[in-house]
Every structure is written in structure tokens, then in C-alpha cells.
Amino acid sequence: MRKSFPAEDLARDDRFRRARTEDRINDPRNQFLPEGRRAGRLTPERPDAAHAARQMMHGIFVGEIQALEGAGRTVWDFDDDDAPFALKLDMARQCWDEARHTEISVKLGEWMGTEVGEFAETTFLYEAACNPDPVLRLTGVNRALEGLAIDVFNTMREFGQACGDPVLEFCEDWMLADEVTHVKMGSDWLRRLTESDPGRRERALEFQRVVDKLFSFRGFRGEGDDSPVQLARTFRRMAGFGDAEIDTIAADAETDSQQEGWKAPV
Amino acid sequence: MADASAPRSPFAPWDRRELPGLFTVEESARRVGHYAWIEMRLFEALGGWVATVPELDVKTMLGRHCYHHAWHAELWHKRLPELREMRPERMIRAPNADLEAFVAALTEPEAPELTIEKLVGVYRVLLPRKIGAYTYHLAATSRITDGPTIRSLGFILEDETTDWREGEMVLQSLVQSDEEVARAARRQGGLETLITRAGGIAGPGSLGGEPADSKVGAAS
Amino acid sequence: MNVTVAPQAFSLVAFDAGRIAALAAEVAALVGVPDDVTVEVDVDERSPFGKTSALVSGRSVRLIVEGGALEDPQRLRQFSDAGARLALGRLLYRVADRFDPAFGDPPADADLTMAEHAAWDAYCLGRYARRAGVDSGEGRRRYAFRIRHGFTDAADQAFDRLWHGSDLTWSDIQRVCGV
Question: For the domain that residue A122 is a member of, what is the CATH number?
């Protein structure tokens, strides 16, 4: 088995269809979306609330599969010199958690009437976050990707609360608890592995910022009412994100959302 | 009224544990080091395979089992300093080159159509071997002096048995045709040959039958 | 039945006007839209979203469809036959209901509440599933219905009555919506 596994080789059964990230970004229809016509915050008041929630849930589902695969690859790809045993132990724990989240997502999809593979999958989560440098990978996965997961799960949890869906609210809250743990793991290891190398830490945090901007793609995640996924400040603070860090994500998202038109990447 | 100062036997009548065991401290540490090594190799492989298998239920099973074996490795890591081994890295190694060759062969399959080969290696060869070696250790070591190892073995064997059962059931659901049966048998045969050469996960004597460095009162 | 599609040629998505017209005619006949009704399908190919509505004026019907409603969710900008049939089935069953004097006099699509939309959709798609012999997504329609009517046993029973119902009237649908 190779060390380092490319996204195009991620194994899937026949139900899944891959969409290229660049095709979504370069969708020619994006230019025609009128000012202010974005999908908007995910609330029951949206006429397409059910479809949007199902689509987002399927995005969570494939995201969890990619997170599971990413954590698994980290366990395998790095030898003891690059990644100490204790780090791999935490990544193995994350494998377990992401496997559970995958199972929860399947059940939630069934609850919402969504079929496995109903929507196309883009692998930009796996691609963006899995870096050959273990410190950058940790930062990309456990701070950027899991930070996005906090935002998405909180959005879905609030949606479940707002429309009175007890199953959705219950499950998203449990998954949210796990993600806070994952971010803490990432923060702790980033600090420990770069204790004597501030330059490496800076590069890691810059990589995190690049990945965060990708995940905020043109207002998909932000604090405006027109962002489907809302930045979850409270839960991010619990996970150890500083206010300055959160403000940066919000500011970057706002700047990016001024770009005309968007289509959610998952 | 009972006399609180009346002497009682230090061991309750139903406590039949005996002092002697087959393993010295050094022998226990040697085995535990090998156990840690194989658990680490196994959890790394299971984690790496998640991305390579298309079957959703197998992906999530590998993710769960990955953590089980990582936790086992952690238990063994922690046990080594307690066995007077202050440099665990000295003991955490394969018992011989043959077991390294076994692990290399075990972890070789990557293609998405080789799920049967991946699972046979783990659930029909390695896990049964681990269950055997751990069960032997449980039976052979002193139930009093090696109490902490016995406790860890209890937890670990519970996992190993549950994981083996789950993996075997998944395999039975995947192996449906004569050709698939033949594939599974070929794979199992090839890996059994390698692990037999190695003598098991702790090398020769994994299941006893080899003299330990010294035995304390083995005949009593 | 006279069915026209606008635009006649698509440049942003891989749709074929002739195919859309053929499907619309087939589905309209299947669900009982009268033969003398003219149907215009107006597709906005610039939009990836899926909003749809039907405007009935005399014996003319205009179906206004955002392109996303006909798009394959697995293949960006590609047409989905199955998805298009469901979207058209839902819209054209409503049209057939409007032309049925026994159904009653529902408001225009734009004036319906979201609860009424969800209820009427359940009734339309349940019938379409039986008439066409296809899976029209009972699970996801039930979820959409629950969002509007509640996650309760009573709401589920109301959905079942609509999904499995025949010869219902607009009043029956309004009763489900508590009107």
C-alpha cells in the first residue's frame, strides 16, 4: 500500500458520482446570478428548505467519509519520525469518531429521504486538507476542515431546532461535541510539534487560512444572512479558536462573498 | 457479635489464584513489546485501507477497528515502563524478520477490488493468531504478580473477539462465488505460511512449547 | 397537445428543447391534462436552482422552470430524464387538477402558502408514482411535508392520506393544512 493516496483514487461504490471542484467553481451560470440572489441562510422559511437541507446533509455525509479517509491516511502515511505514536493514537481515535459520523449521516440521510450518492461528490475537502507535511495536514484537517464541520453541524442543528426536527437536532449536537474534541487535538498537536520551529507554525497557520478561505467559497460560509452555513462563534471558542482567528475567517468570508454569484461546492 | 480482630485468611476461600507463572518480568516485557509492535502495524494498516475500499460498511468497520488496535498499542506502551523497561522503543519491535515479512505481505494489497484479500489477512490470519497468543499469555502468566497485564489482556481479548467476529461476518458476506472462495483461501494460505515461519506474533513460543528464560515454580 | 419549449437551444446546460417538449407532452397525457390545452415550458438555463411554477390562463399553461429542476444532481449541467419527469409530473398534475371542475378553485401558485405547496405536492407525486409506476421520492416528500406540517404522528397520517389519495379536492388539501 502506497504512502500518500491521491484524491482521484478514493474508492467508492457505483452509487457515487464525482464532480470536479473546478467545474463547480467555473460553472458558467454563476455569472448570471442576480445581485442578492444567493441561496441564503438555511432556515425553514426558505421555499427550498427541505431540498437544501437534504443536499447539505449529503454533503456532510461525503465529507465525513473523506474525513475518515483522511484520518486513516494520516495513521498510515507517516512514520514514527514524522508523526509520534501519541499523534497517531489521536488520529486513530478520530477514525473511530468519523466512522461513527458516517454512520449517523447515513441514518440522517434515510430520515430525510435522501439516497446514498443522490448528489455528486467533490473531493475538495480531502484534497485541500491532506498535505504531505504532517503539521500542515493536521492544521488543514483538524483546524480548518473540522472548524468548517463545527459551522455546518451547528447550522444543521439550528435548522433542526427551528423546524422541530428532533432527530436532526439530536444527531447534529452529538457530532458537534466530537468535532470540538478534534479541533482541540489539532490545536494541541500544532503547538507541540512546532514548539521549537515558529516558522513551521506560521506556515501551518497560513495553510489553515488558505483552506479556510476555500471553505468559505464566495459566501458559502460566513456571518451574513445570505450564507447557507453560519460561522459558529460560540462552539469555535469552546474548541479553542481565538476571537482574532474567528474574526479573520469572518472577514475573509465577507470579502469573498462580494464576488458575484456562487454555487456551493458540495 | 463477630470479632473484628479475629484473623482471616488473606485469600478468600474461593480465590484460587496461585503465585507462580511461566514468565519472568523480562519475558513479559519481551512479549508485551512484540504485542505493541503488531498492534501498531495493524492499526496503521486498517487506517490506510479505509480510503482504498469502496464498500461503505467495510470503511466504517475499518475506522472503528483502527482505534481498537491503537488503544491496545497504547495499553502495551504503558505497561512496558511498569515492567522495568524505561525505554519502550527498545522493546517495541518485531520478534524476527519473518514477522516483518508477514506484515509487509499483509499490508501490500491496495486496489479497490482487493477487499477480500485485505480482510482475510486481518480476520482469518492475524486476529486468530493474536487471540491465541493473548489467551496463552493469560493462562501462563502469574495471576498475582502480573495482574496489570492480565487486566489489559481481558479488555483486549474482548475487542479482538468482537472484531474478529464482525470481520469474519463481513468476509462471509463478500465471499459468494467459487472464485472468491479460492481467492480467500490462496490469500490465507500465503499469509499463514509467513506467520508460521515467524512463530506467531511473539515469535517462537507464542503459544508456549518453548522454554521461557526462567520459570518460577512452574510445577507447583 | 401543443407543447413548446423556450429557449429552443441551450448554451449553458446540456438540455435539448425537443426532449423536454416530448417529455412534457408524454407526462401531460399521462396525468390527464386535456388535449386542447397548450403548454409552454419556459426554462431559465442561467439558474442552477430548482424553483418551478405553473400559470394557467384560459386553455393555456405556462410552466416556469429554473434549470436546476431538470438537472441531474450527480452530473453538473446535464439533463436528467427521471428528474424532469418528476418535476413535470408534479407541475402538470396541478394543472390537471386546476382544469378539473370537481377539484375546486385553488389560488394561483404564487399565492399558495408553503404548507399548501407541500400538501398539494404530496398529493400530486403520490398519484404520479402510481400512474407512472416509478419511485417519486416518498421519503423526501414526507420530509418536506414534515417541515411544513410538523414532525408528529398526525402529520405523518395526513401525508399518507395525501400520498395514497385519489379524487381529493382542494378543500381536502386545505383541511390537511388546517384551513
Answer: 1.20.1260.10
